[in-house]
Amino acid sequence: KLSRLGIFGLGTMGRNLALNFADNGVQISVFNREIEVVDELLKTISDTGKVSGFKNVSDFVFSLDKPRIVILLITAGKPVDEAIEQLLPYLEPGDIIVDSGNSYYKDTERRYEYLKSQGLRFVGLGISGGSEGARKGPALMPGGDFSAYKDLEDSLKLVAAKSHYGPCVEYMGNRSVGHFVKMVHNGIEYAIIGAISEVFYVMRNLMRMTHEEIADVFEEWNKKDFDSFLLRTASAVLKQVDEKTGKPYVDVILDLAEQKGTGLWFTQTALEIGVPAMSISASVNSRIISTYKELRRSVAEKRETISSSKVIESFETLRDALFFSSLIAHAEGLWLLTKASQIFNYGTDLEKVLKVWRKGSILESSLIDSILKHNLNFSNCLIEDGDFRAVLEKLLPSTMALSNLCRGAAIPIPVINSSIDFYLSVTSENLPANLVQGIRDWFGYHGFYRVDQPGTVFHFVKPESQSD
Ligand code: 6PG
């Protein structure tokens, strides 16, 4: 019996997604380079009768029903190109390759064109939810060949997470957009993880709360104010105790944050196409600063800081700041996606993107429901919507109060601070960019526009005595 689709790569993600397909009655074939892994998986699920394992690529490909669908679940980068080359000799025109790693969208663009030239259909599939999500229901962001998506749709709907909007899978648009959307998702993820950690830092160092107390507050917010996967995760992590030392586990984790690339790509892309994603960039930079552990240790200063009696009166201030920063992170991410969709002709529908993220993704949060209530037909940014601004304006005083307090206490909270600066800058009619222009022209004859004659380039006429 031929299989509906094939899973290429049986790492944790591949294995879990394979089990998820099998649970949902989809007949699949699996292949892995290290063949013992295939046996292992088959042992686990041999009873289902839904999984056939293969130890060479040709048998694997020929076990698939036509048009053949192969889903790659392998490390992003070179291994994807290698896998494609391994598959090519056995695939036929019209067959489909799906790349579901965290691939760089420019690679996806290249592979899309390459496979198209070979008569094959390519789908870049962003998957969120980690390995647990893959097993129980991930959020799926497919983009690329639309007819290929249609051939995949039913199977993907079966395994995807289900929210009150339906299965968390939607066609995201043309060519490389699936991985672009996943990159945007991860950028937002970085900023929210950063903001939650900064709130923790304040609670710990300024309010002298215990990990247990902080976890309880997070849980409370999660129940009452906004339900969020990342807040639940933070709470669970804070409750862990290290068996060896008896200390809260977070205290024995080195404060050195790593990253695998998507946050960096987000920031690079935002700079390249001109979107001011200030808080997301700050979250990437704060991970980078954290890696200089030895430097930080060697130059660490003890500073006079405000007394702890002056600390925040209510937890609501902190909650509002976290809420504010989380909304700004979404606004920045969606801005990048909107601009990219305009430039690259992705044809992305933001409503669909948000609905996909609503469940199963790392961004899973009731916050998304509140964002969906706003007008998503903006030309640049969600902040154009007056109702959205009204929400932010309400949260702003608390966020600024926290920011001021941290300044006074010499506590760095770069993500939260940058979200304020982003918002204040976007909502300021006048910025000091006039002086920037003036300086540029004075030393480099770069030109500027006048407020009374936009569109015409002017230069300073330097008197002889002032020229340098
Ligand atoms: C997800 C996650 C997942 C992972 C990223 C980011 O949506 O399931 O985004 O893909 O968290 O790889 O990891 P780094 O923080 O290591 O860059």
UniProtKB/TrEMBL annotation:
<feature type="binding site" description="in other chain">
    <location>
        <position position="260"/>
    </location>
    <ligand>
        <name>substrate</name>
    </ligand>
</feature>
<keyword id="KW-0521">NADP</keyword>
<protein>
    <recommendedName>
        <fullName>6-phosphogluconate dehydrogenase, decarboxylating</fullName>
        <ecNumber>1.1.1.44</ecNumber>
    </recommendedName>
</protein>
<dbReference type="InterPro" id="IPR006115">
    <property type="entry name" value="6PGDH_NADP-bd"/>
</dbReference>
<feature type="binding site">
    <location>
        <position position="440"/>
    </location>
    <ligand>
        <name>substrate</name>
    </ligand>
</feature>
<feature type="active site" description="Proton donor">
    <location>
        <position position="189"/>
    </location>
</feature>
<dbReference type="GO" id="GO:0006098">
    <property type="term" value="P:pentose-phosphate shunt"/>
</dbReference>
<feature type="binding site" description="in other chain">
    <location>
        <begin position="185"/>
        <end position="186"/>
    </location>
    <ligand>
        <name>substrate</name>
    </ligand>
</feature>
<feature type="binding site" description="in other chain">
    <location>
        <position position="102"/>
    </location>
    <ligand>
        <name>substrate</name>
    </ligand>
</feature>
<feature type="binding site">
    <location>
        <position position="446"/>
    </location>
    <ligand>
        <name>substrate</name>
    </ligand>
</feature>
<feature type="binding site" description="in other chain">
    <location>
        <begin position="128"/>
        <end position="130"/>
    </location>
    <ligand>
        <name>substrate</name>
    </ligand>
</feature>
<comment type="subunit">
    <text>Homodimer.</text>
</comment>
<keyword id="KW-0560">Oxidoreductase</keyword>
<comment type="similarity">
    <text>Belongs to the 6-phosphogluconate dehydrogenase family.</text>
</comment>
<dbReference type="InterPro" id="IPR008927">
    <property type="entry name" value="6-PGluconate_DH-like_C_sf"/>
</dbReference>
<dbReference type="InterPro" id="IPR006114">
    <property type="entry name" value="6PGDH_C"/>
</dbReference>
<feature type="domain" description="6-phosphogluconate dehydrogenase C-terminal">
    <location>
        <begin position="178"/>
        <end position="463"/>
    </location>
</feature>
<comment type="function">
    <text>Catalyzes the oxidative decarboxylation of 6-phosphogluconate to ribulose 5-phosphate and CO(2), with concomitant reduction of NADP to NADPH.</text>
</comment>
<dbReference type="Pfam" id="PF00393">
    <property type="entry name" value="6PGD"/>
</dbReference>
<dbReference type="InterPro" id="IPR036291">
    <property type="entry name" value="NAD(P)-bd_dom_sf"/>
</dbReference>
<dbReference type="InterPro" id="IPR006183">
    <property type="entry name" value="Pgluconate_DH"/>
</dbReference>
<keyword id="KW-0570">Pentose shunt</keyword>
<dbReference type="GO" id="GO:0004616">
    <property type="term" value="F:phosphogluconate dehydrogenase (decarboxylating) activity"/>
</dbReference>
<dbReference type="GO" id="GO:0019521">
    <property type="term" value="P:D-gluconate metabolic process"/>
</dbReference>
<dbReference type="InterPro" id="IPR006184">
    <property type="entry name" value="6PGdom_BS"/>
</dbReference>
<dbReference type="GO" id="GO:0050661">
    <property type="term" value="F:NADP binding"/>
</dbReference>
<feature type="binding site" description="in other chain">
    <location>
        <position position="287"/>
    </location>
    <ligand>
        <name>substrate</name>
    </ligand>
</feature>
<dbReference type="Pfam" id="PF03446">
    <property type="entry name" value="NAD_binding_2"/>
</dbReference>
<comment type="pathway">
    <text>Carbohydrate degradation; pentose phosphate pathway; D-ribulose 5-phosphate from D-glucose 6-phosphate (oxidative stage): step 3/3.</text>
</comment>
<feature type="binding site" description="in other chain">
    <location>
        <position position="190"/>
    </location>
    <ligand>
        <name>substrate</name>
    </ligand>
</feature>
<keyword id="KW-0311">Gluconate utilization</keyword>
<dbReference type="InterPro" id="IPR006113">
    <property type="entry name" value="6PGDH_Gnd/GntZ"/>
</dbReference>
<dbReference type="InterPro" id="IPR013328">
    <property type="entry name" value="6PGD_dom2"/>
</dbReference>
<feature type="active site" description="Proton acceptor">
    <location>
        <position position="182"/>
    </location>
</feature>
